[in-house]
Write a structure and sequence with these properties.
By secondary structure, the protein is an alpha+beta fold. It contains three helices and seven strands. The chain has a single domain, classed as Thiol Ester Dehydrase, Chain A. It starts with a strand and ends with a helix.
Length: about 140
């Protein structure tokens, strides 16, 4: 399993009238966490683009347990449990400063060839980066 964490503080414009982080912003937070995890392994967006690879989201499931608030330090934990084939699955947990689990989520992206827009297997450079991260504990 590969894991990583990022921290962020919700901005004023990301909360609703009740003072809670607006629900759709969690999708963006998880996307940011996924992007940072991949970047730490050398799989950055420009490398994917150079290799004609896109990663569109095909499913996103979220479970809100407690609300997050403006300027509250949040920790987003990201997990990759299985090596990808065509689909690439991520799991997320959002925690607050008090160690309370606020939200869990799951996201699935699919490897797509940007030229023909057809699904494809995980590229070799992605598989190698994930294997290296597992063996070297880059993100664990």
């Amino acid at each position: 399993m590969i894991t990583d964490e990022i921290q962020l503080r919700p901005r004023y414009g990301e909360v609703d009238q009740m003072g809670y982080v607006y629900h759709a912003n969690y999708v963006s937070y998880c996307h940011q966490a996924r992007t940072e995890l991949l970047r730490k392994m050398g799989i950055h967006d420009s490398l994917l683009e150079e290799n004609n690879v896109m990663l569109p989201v095909i499913s996103f499931e979220i479970n809100y347990k407690k609300p997050a608030h403006y300027d509250e330090l949040l920790t987003i934990k990201t997990k990759i449990k299985d090596m990808p084939e065509v689909r690439f699955n991520f799991e997320f947990e959002v925690w607050n400063e008090e160690g309370i689990l606020l939200t869990t989520a799951k996201s699935t992206v699919v490897f797509v060839d940007s030229k023909n827009r057809f699904p494809m297997g995980a590229p070799d450079f992605v598989e190698k980066a994930l294997e290296n991260a597992k063996t070297m504990n880059v993100c664990n």
